[in-house]
User: What shape does this take?
Amino acid sequence: MVEAITRRKIIAALAVAGASTAIGVAATSATTAENIDSLWRQYTALVVEAKATSRAIEQAEANLPEWARPGPWRVDWEGKFSGREVGWPIRKDLTYPDHDILRLARPGPFEISDWFEEAVSKWPWRREIERARYRKNMRNFVKRVREQRLEKERVGLPGLLDADEGNYDRRWEIREAISALPPSDNSVAALLLLNLDEAIDIEVLSHLRPRLTGLIAEHAALVVERRCVDHKDLPFVV
Assistant: This one.
């Protein structure tokens, strides 16, 4: 995993630190610096692309009819939705429940199976009736999902999701390529920037900053100056 490699590299760098060098990471050679800078520029370009794709996905989902959008899976007697977010469509035969009761509005195949198992456990003599009801519910579910798929195709959502997945894969490949490089100022800084989650990361970046080069130096400066690890608007954070 990239994060595990990151932490091991930082610990190793700190372990070999000399008293005169605060953070004793190996100096970055010109060739290594060029390699890291090239990878980093590719990565940040992909981040820009990922953010644009994410906005396009949000817009496409907003253009779906309400029943076809992802959303909370339960509904109450007033028509208010709640609960965990799921991607299943709202059932076509949905009606609001009685007062103080919640009903599944976006059931999936597991919930439909659970309905059958629960009914049979309560009324075993009704197995054939419940089995017929289960099959009907499944047919309705499959039909609704097919209708949802047509709506998603209409707004271009499948292509956007494929593009988003491909972007993620390419970013992950770059992360692995950076983690495979020998420890150096720029490589350790790059891995820290990719895995910002602790205040100590900023302190390490602050010590490394005078020796960093290229775009990584610019981005490390942004983090150090903000003194915060949670900034979604940073140019290397999706």
Q: What stands out?
A: The chain is about 60% helix and 5% strand. The chain has a mean pLDDT of 87. Helices lie at 2-15, 30-62, 109-122, 127-154, 157-179, 185-194, 199-208, 214-226.
